[in-house]
Amino acid sequence: MIYKFKNYTPVVHESSFVHPLAAVTGNVIIGKNCYVGPGAAVRGDWGQIILEDGVNVQENCTVHMFPGKSITLKESAHVGHGAIIHGANLGKNCLIGMNTVIMDDAEIGDECIIGAMSFVKAETKIPYRSLVVGNPAKVIRGITDEMIAWKTKGTQLYQKLPADCHESLREVEPLREVPENMKMQDDVYKTLRETFKK
């Protein structure tokens, strides 16, 4: 659902995919190869929200801000299921874990990983390539090249997802029986722990 609000109509690049069960409102600019999942709300009613190229905002996320603020989710930012970004700016190629809350005027540096269910307080500045966890969130160490390579591969799956959705996502009636020839999807990505298991 794309909504005009007070003469602001969202701008969505044709290569991106906004799920019909998401809500994008007002002064929102969505770049190339972005994915906005079902249940997500990207509300540019009180300020501008920019999703640069390759950003994904997954299912049940909220992106909003206080009046008069504007925020940017920079290229390849990856916002996990259920996260809330309220008036914060996200750096390039960062990962925001599931159900994380990032508050107003926080700045997440490029290539940071914020662990699931973390709470980043207002005005927190997270430096480049930091691993952050907890409530309140704290930097626990730096990010290795191997970790950022793992994150980047996961984000690339989401950058391919808009084209896949445009090509094959359709509303249908459910099947009543499992087809005999039904196969599992390919194992194309592993958890961080599986990836670096010795």
UniProtKB/TrEMBL annotation:
CDD domains: LbH_paaY_like (cd04745). InterPro entries: Hexapep, Transf_Hexapept/Carb_Anhydrase, Trimer_LpxA-like_sf. It holds the Pfam family Hexapep. It comes from the Bacteria. PANTHER family: DYNACTIN SUBUNIT P25, GAMMA CARBONIC ANHYDRASE-LIKE 1, MITOCHONDRIAL-RELATED. This is Phenylacetic acid degradation protein PaaY. It comes from Winogradskyella psychrotolerans RS-3.
